[in-house]
Amino acid sequence: MQTMQDVERAREQAYLDTLYTRLDEVREITREQLRGVLLDVGTGTPQSIVERDVFAAAHADRLARLDAAEGRLCFGAMDHDDGRRTYIGRIGLSDSEQEPILVDWRAPVATAFYRATLADPQGLVRRRHLRTRGREVTGIADDPLGPLGAAPDGAVAPSGDSMLLETLAAPRTGRMHDIIATLQAEQDRIIRARANGILVVDGGPGTGKTAVALHRAAYLLYNDRARLDQSGVLIVGPSPVFLRYIDQVLPSLGETGVVFATPGRLFPGVDATADEPVEVATLKGDPRMAEVVAGAVRDRQRLPRQELVINYDDHVLRLGQETVARARTRARRSRRPHNSARRVFLRELLAELTTQVVRQIRGGLLDADERGQITRDLWAEEEIRAVLDGLWPLLTPQQLIGDLFSDSAALARAAGNRLTPGERALLQDLPPAVDLARPGRALSGADAPRMIRSGGVAGPRAADEDDADDLFAAANLLPTAAGAGPNGAPPDDRGRAGDRAGDRAGDRAGDRAGDRAGVDPAGHAGRIPAPRTGDPTVGADLAAARRGAGGERRWTPADVPLLDEAAELLGDPEEEAGLEAARRAERERAEEREYARGVVDMLGLDGQVDAAALADRWSGPRVRRSAAEHARADRGWAFGHLIVDEAQEVSPMLWRLLWRRCPGRTATLVGDLAQTARPGAPTSWAELLAPVVDERFTVERLSVNYRTPQEIMDVAAEVLRAQNPSLTAPVSVRAVGHRPTAVRVGEVAVEDVPGLARLLGDAPSPANEPSASLLAAVAHAARREAAAADTGRVAVIARPRDVLVLRAALMALLPDLAVVPDSVDPASAAGNALDAPVAVLSVAETKGLEFDAVVLVEPAALLTEPTRGLADLYVALTRATRSLSVVYSGELPPVLGGLDLE
Ligand SMILES: Nc1ncnc2c1ncn2[C@@H]1O[C@H](COP(=O)(O)OP(=O)(O)OP(=O)(O)O)[C@@H](O)[C@H]1O
């Protein structure tokens, strides 16, 4: 007999069929349009080419969105109190009469679908959830929101909650999925919150913060497409594994205008993956480091203590400290970044040297052209260049920061009294005394040419030549540009006494170092030492620890904000070199963009097509570069919106970088202060954000845990209370009916784990490696959990130093479960963790991820790690969606007393 459910399902299937038929039609129409546009040769005029590209881009984007809508096209319906029904889906669709037949989940009218309750039905009498597989309706669940919404025969249909619970209990696939069908009201409110400002989404583990942040990105792109398609959205997540975990959500929602990055990838050209102790990373993130970097830049703008004497042809030229100081002051007053202020410095000193040559030429006055020639000749002299470069070198951020950390004296000068000696020791590569003990080390004349010859050759060299052009022009202005009267006070040196005092105070230490520049160890003013590269053997083995095989420095994620800070103060040498060319190109591009914008307007495609990208395609090589692609390669790109996941981990220095990437400061920051790994972490969002954004942010809280079952949360809540009694864990939305268990090492014999005895051989395990009985217990638990998880995922979570051994052991013992295709190397297997039925990971690597089951190894060891042990334990415990087993030796930490012992 047909039930009411069957009848309803047949009705819904008929409607779904209509929707898919229409989707196919619209896709075919769009495909035809795209084909037509691409085949149309047009008239070949620029205008016809632009028009063609406008249409092609619009059709291609639309087609991509229609394709993304194929799975779960429609997932719900609203019955209004006036008898209307509205279907909600992944995209909006209209029939051939242009009547809407499906509403995009982000449209304002869809809000009621997510927010209506019995108490506040928002004009609805019923909310209906449709479960589908492919193009077939497989289930219906109703939430009656008023008497009219009750099932006609009184039969109780499953509720929307059942749909949610079913979704949450499903085995995990290793990838996050969109949640548009089951978004909860508190989440929907955050997703649709206004975009102008900083929104902090705070909530415990599993409350959907990440999911909400991604859906908010999709909502903002839909709602503000014209702006965000051009500027892009930047999403920053804690690790590459995490980014892979979430990377399908936005494409499944039809959105691609997003750039994903880890903190280690936020500086173009640098992939910072090296590791370092937590206390070093923490210090590098300290706001004082901004001043240290600024100090390092100033330290590279040097004065000689004594007069420099240069033999040039038959002339003896002299650069006294006052002359150099005047040039330096002028350059600093230009308020330009170091590399471009260098032009001012060079111009001043070359003018001075030119004047000296002119004075020494018998017969006196020369015309402007002749003086210009002298300036050019001086600049062509390698020794003179070396001196000037030494006093004010052209620098890349990598050179500045690399030199800072490998030269203890430079670090001491840059830091002044901002860092303690102990802190400086944490930062530096070399033992402190090395450089100081080498008298007469030619810091200026030596370092600068080395810098020019090392990495980034083309850039700095080209910039140099560019400088020279400037100088030739400046030489014509010599008498006024030099401007120094006999008393040495240049005209613009008056005023801003404070500035001058500051300059002097800040420079004293650097100047002392500069003394050694160009001054021989005997201390008398003498010849400039020949440029030389420092002694490569000094501290080489120590430095090697920070460098890769090719001698390149291996950057850590905490270095990235320092590089960015340096780039800000230095300016980009390559950019400086190409400045004029870039300005010219930008002028031309602006004109092209203006024209493209006109065409976009004319065709009524505003908001659907990015005029800038279009202009690029038209003017440059005919390859489409999206805003996201531009943004990824450009440090100066201003994103339209910033999303930061695990925002509680962001250091003050990283905030500085992030706000530079999003100067409009419209951002969604999601995190949980209780999960912070950093020692001394802030206890409130105000404390975390105050140094960078004052009070200008709003905090929204999520309170329901959709991931972790109640039984596991009860255990985790104890850990949270031990961390801070005032914190409360989120309430779990479901229970699974079994409690987490603990198994003591030794209860599983080595012989009980097939292959383990053979794997270990006869040699005893080294003292600092996991014991044979621990390996046996972990392998046993992992196999058991994997069997119960069916197609789902299991994580073995251990302290970092045990991870590699455990990974190698499980790959050998459970080859069908723990080995991922193309990953036989335990060291690189973390990246493939998402694809393996069983993965071995550290707590840091599991941040933001989830698994059907977790095997937590030696929780007591987590508590002794140098990070925040209880916070790490809390993170580890809250990764499971179904089951948790703890493997331990000795005693269980008292905070886990609630576990059932096996
Ligand atoms: N409304 C919802 N419908 C279905 N699933 C949901 C819903 N909200 C959250 N989830 C699921 O709950 C799980 C946890 O979500 P998410 O990872 O976003 O939490 P989180 O707050 O970022 O957690 P953590 O702080 O531990 O990283 C995910 O599988 C997510 O898909």
Automatic annotation (TrEMBL):
Residues annotated as transmembrane: none
Keyword Magnesium: no
Domain UvrD-like helicase ATP-binding residues, every copy: 182-709
Biased composition annotated in UniProt, kind: Basic and acidic residues: 491-518
Keywords linked to the UniProt accession: ATP-binding, Helicase, Hydrolase, Nucleotide-binding
InterPro entries: DNA_helicase_UvrD/REP, P-loop_NTPase, UvrD-like_ATP-bd, UvrD-like_helicase_C
Family matches, as SUPFAM superfamilies: P-loop containing nucleoside triphosphate hydrolases
Binding site for ATP: G203, G204, P205, G206, T207, G208, K209, T210
Entry superkingdom: Bacteria
Region entry Disordered, spans: 438-464, 480-539
Gene Ontology biological-process entries: recombinational repair
MF term (GO), any: ATP binding
Name of the molecule in the record: UvrD-like helicase ATP-binding domain-containing protein
Organism: Frankia torreyi
